[in-house]
Every structure is written in structure tokens, then in C-alpha cells.
Design a protein that fits this description.
Protein name: Winged helix-turn-helix domain-containing protein
Strand order of the largest sheet: 3-4-5
Pfam families: HTH_20
CATH architecture of the domain at 3-76: Orthogonal Bundle
Number of strands: 5
Radius of gyration: 16 Å
CATH superfamily of the domain at 3-76: Winged helix-like DNA-binding domain superfamily/Winged helix DNA-binding domain
InterPro entries: ArsR-like_HTH, WH-like_DNA-bd_sf, WH_DNA-bd_sf
């Protein structure tokens, strides 16, 4: 995995709002959309990406009064860092579990 994907997710306005909102309390896409002004379609797209790359996870699923399943998401990330050092991009994620994941650009510095 390249650090570029993670740096894009961490700096995307909607993704950052979602990550911030689900740091301590699980929330549904509908709650996130209503509370943080994120269009519902964009909210679902960002949730799928954040979940795909392991930045959030579905904590629970509940049935609504209409019998529809609603997923509630929580962040797996405690802290996130983006570094630009010596011409290379590096991302470090400190996870809630206590683990650390690092992603570094391994491309040639000459850009070739």
C-alpha cells in the first residue's frame, strides 16, 4: 500500500469529518450525513473507502423501526501522521489496538 492513498483519505474533508466523528462513539451514515453536512451518497462512498483501508470498522448493526439494518462505525485509528521527509512521503497510523502501521513511498528519488 502506498502512503498516497492514506494521505488522500486523511486530508479529504468528508473522510476527515467522518474519522473525527467516529473516534469515540459509533455512528451511522445517516447520523454522519445529518450532523456533519456530508451528502449521503458521499458519506457512503467515504465510509466504504475508510473501511476498505482499515481506518474504520463496523462496530454493530441495528434494526431500525422500519426493519432496515443500520451499520454503526467506529475509528480504528488513534493518531495519524503524514510526513514529507527528504523528498518522500510517509504515513504512520497509531491504531486503537496499540499497533502501528507505516506506509512509505519506496519510489526512486529521481522520480524515475
Amino acid at each position: 500500500m502506498t502512503p498516497f492513498i492514506y494521505s488522500q483519505l486523511l486530508t479529504d474533508e468528508y473522510a476527515a469529518r467522518i474519522l473525527t466523528a467516529v473516534m469515540k462513539v459509533p455512528r451511522s451514515a445517516q447520523q454522519l450525513s445529518a450532523s456533519y453536512g456530508i451528502p449521503i451518497a458521499a458519506c457512503y462512498r467515504r465510509i466504504r473507502l475508510l473501511e476498505k483501508y482499515g481506518l474504520i470498522e463496523c462496530r454493530e448493526r441495528r434494526l431500525s423501526q422500519q426493519g432496515k439494518r443500520i451499520s454503526y462505525y467506529i475509528s480504528t485509528v488513534k493518531n495519524a501522521y503524514i510526513f514529507f521527509e527528504g523528498g518522500r512521503l510517509r504515513v504512520r497510523l497509531d491504531l486503537v489496538s496499540g499497533a502501528t502501521r507505516e506506509f512509505e513511498d519506496k519510489s526512486d528519488e529521481s522520480g524515475v
